[in-house]
Amino acid sequence: xxxxxxxxxxxxxxxxxxxxLAVALRKVLADRxxxxxxxxxxxxxxxxxxxxxxxxxxxxVAQIDLTRDDxxxxxxxxxxxxxxxxxxxxxxxxxxxxxxxxGYRRVNAQFAKALAPLxxxxxxxxxxxxxxxxxxxxxxxxxAKNRIGFYLHIPxxxxxxxxxxxxxxxxxxxxxxxxxxxxxxRRDVAAFTEFAEHQAPSTFGGHKAKAIDFSGTAVEAxxxxxxxxxxxxxxxxxxxxxxxxxMHRALGDQRLVLGVDRLDYxxxxxxxxxxxxxxxxxxxxxxxxxxxxxxxxxxxxxxKEYQETSDTLDAICGRVMGQFAEPDWQPLTYVKRAYxxxxxxxxxxxxxxxxxxxxxDGMNLVAHEFIGAQDPEDPGVLILSRFAGAxxxxxxxxxxxxxxxxxxxxxxxxxxxxxxxxxxxxWRALMDAAMAHNVDDWAVEFLDGLAPDAMxxxxxxxxxxYLASVA
Length: 471
Fold this sequence. Notes:
The chain has helices spanning about 20-30, 70-85, 100-115, 135-140, 160-165, 170-175, 185-200, 230-235, 240-250, 270-280, 305-325, 340-350, 365-375, 405-415, 420-435, 440-450, 450-460, and strands at about 5-10, 35-45, 50-55, 60-65, 125-130, 145-150, 180-185, 220, 255-260, 290-295, 330-335, 355, 380-385, 400, 465.
């Protein structure tokens, strides 16, 4: 059986894996021979020319170091100040510095040069996320003929947003060098297909570039999930039960409205709190009857746009407190730190409503985790953004436009007033979908699609693109 080589921006550290994805990928490498390759997390004066291979908690890991300047250009610069906002359709937040692209390609070339000597001819390489779009092309340039797959964990941009990204043609040409490109949702496949079928090559400088040939690349949606059975068990664990008891003491009979997100401008946090504010303003009977808890640990807080999001959220939370708080009642709690999964599972289980309302998201695993943690006899209600990839597989959630805070406020009222029978019916359908899209099956399905024999068998049924190169 072929080895599996997983490549990501960062390699896993020591100790328990932080999330479901890391757990699933560890399982892949536990079941099949292979190793994990990526950046070590260390910044040095000179870039690594060879990978260091070590055993980390029984996992074979190959790592390289980056220079501080290269890491800034590649990670904080091109990846997170250009690609991240553009892929999330926030072109207004993109900051463009030409030298960042040079650093981005330089780091991808460094990854390829350190990885190529470690590969065997029949290894299957699985590359993860937007930091490493050029990696297959760099490996091909070094002679690698392996099956190479790419999975994008964030949304793929619409064609107009894609055209606004510097060097977008080169990035799309990079993607054409993968055997399989996987996305979170069908809408991402549609956006990719729109570019591929209607691409308008640049004529900048008077030289018309060749159209990109995607005929060797399979493109398909592989919706990622969590482990709902594990969250169901976690939600009744001692740590989860302790959290539930703590919250019961603090809330009494108040119903909990819960949000759990990274502090990121794509998550729609200011709009979410504004919707809660409108709920209280429009439904005075619910005051003292509900309490909102927003958990939002900082994310990339050295980037200006993230600091501005934090400041905006601070201000709107203060406004809600000032408008509605009483000496013996607070309408909301805002926590800027992370909690472990057992504590989160307890919060999920206790919540009457979970607000998952990103402005745009690849999938959003909070929705999956909330569903898995519910009490089947008394489940809570999921309010979900139409612009999260999860909306495609969870139609039984209350789907909202997060930009329309009046609509979200009304969804909150409906969720809080929803009868038990309807809550149970919706939850059962959601749980069935979460089970069908669990993270273990996601990994198996992607690798089955990338395997040489499987690719040959399944190509006709995939969303294949056949575009002839033209001069």
